[in-house]
TrEMBL record:
InterPro entries: ClpP/crotonase-like_dom_sf, Enoyl-CoA_hyd/isom_CS, Enoyl-CoA_hydra/iso, Enoyl-CoA_hydra_C. One of its GO terms (molecular function) is enoyl-CoA hydratase activity. Gene3D superfamilies: 2-enoyl-CoA Hydratase, Chain A, domain 1, Lyase 2-enoyl-coa Hydratase, Chain A, domain 2. This is Probable enoyl-CoA hydratase, mitochondrial. Its EC number is 4.2.1.17. Keywords: Fatty acid metabolism, Lipid metabolism, Lyase. The keyword Phosphoprotein does not apply. It comes from Andalucia godoyi.
């Protein structure tokens, strides 16, 4: 049974997929500190749960998340945000979660909501999705990776326009510009994401994590270093039983039985 929380719902599906639903509907899933702390805790629990192979993070049909909680942070002083490392707990999402995480975005993914979606491994968008970094309208800037990850995802020109004007982009523009991998009808989005996560959960877990690590390295390092890492990790897969099993199953014309070692 999944752990229970106040601001999120965690469900374990039969296909080794965990579904996390942000659940502060009255505030359009604004990312309060309690919500973010629960989310990071849930992800760490799922990372350590051998029965889970992949994770889907979603919100509601109206909002994935409409940003950091503006009411909570509006009166904070510089020293409070600095000393308490406001949003610092979110670093664990990228640094500690080796299992694949899909963001399934319906409705608004704004500010911290867009940044949270971009921290996931890929984004599936409902056709009603809206992405934006409107912090400029509040007299601040993105602070959970928006300027960096949006620029890497969609390029300088579009990232600059969105960050400097606060304009939202719809699902079609987000797909065209490479922010999202696919668009799905809004009502089918969560189940399509769970199915896609199930595909990954059925593969060898350590190999999926190695593949994720390699793609992430593309955003951190030079091409030469990234290629070196990829080649080394490719060789390392030959030390696993799952590589032997996967290739033997192909030759035997049968489905592989991966054992995660
Ligand atoms: C706190 C929020 C909120 C937010 C919405 N709500 N977004 N509360 N923080 N980010 C609350 C509203 O106050 C309202 O509560 C309820 O949710 C419903 O919102 P409405 O505005 O009434 O809905 P609607 O008219 O449909 O407009 C939807 C919206 C709008 C366009 C998404 O809510 C909006 O512009 N929200 C703020 C978007 C934003 O600026 N996000 C960036 C946040 S800054 P009540 O109680 O009044 O009914 C950020 C910084 C990241 O993320 C880190 C760097 C600092």
């Amino acid at each position: 049974a999944a752990k229970t929380y106040e601001n999120i719902i965690v469900e374990i599906r039969p296909n080794k997929v965990a579904l996390i639903t942000l659940n502060r509907p009255k505030a359009l899933n604004a990312l309060s500190t309690p919500l973010l702390n629960e989310l990071v805790d849930a992800l760490q629990v799922l990372q350590n749960d051998a029965s889970v192979g992949a994770i889907v993070l979603t919100g509601s049909e109206k909002a994935f998340a409409a940003g950091a909680d503006i009411k909570e942070m509006s009166t904070k002083s510089y020293m409070e945000v600095f000393q308490n490392r406001l949003f610092g707990q979110t670093d664990a999402i990228v640094q500690k979660i080796q299992k694949p995480v899909i963001a399934a975005v319906n409705g608004f993914a704004l500010g911290g909501g867009c940044e949270l979606a971009m921290m996931c491994d890929f984004i599936l968008a409902g056709e009603n999705a809206k992405f934006g970094q409107p912090e400029i309208k509040l007299g601040t800037i993105p602070g959970i990776g928006g300027t960096q990850r949006l620029a890497r995802a969609v390029g300088k020109s579009k990232a600059m326009e969105l960050v400097l004007t606060g304009r939202f982009m719809d699902a079609a523009e987000a797909e065209r510009s490479g922010l999202v991998s696919r668009i799905v009808p809004a009502k089918d989005l969560v189940e399509e994401a769970v199915k896609t996560a199930g595909t990954m959960a059925a593969f060898s877990q350590p190999i999926v994590s190695i593949a994720k690590e390699c793609v992430n390295a593309a955003f951190e390092t030079t091409l030469a270093e990234g290629l070196r890492l990829e080649r080394r990790l490719f060789y390392s897969t030959f030390a696993t039983n799952d590589q032997k099993e996967g290739m033997a199953a192909f030759s035997d014309k049968r489905d592989p039985k991966f054992t995660n070692n």
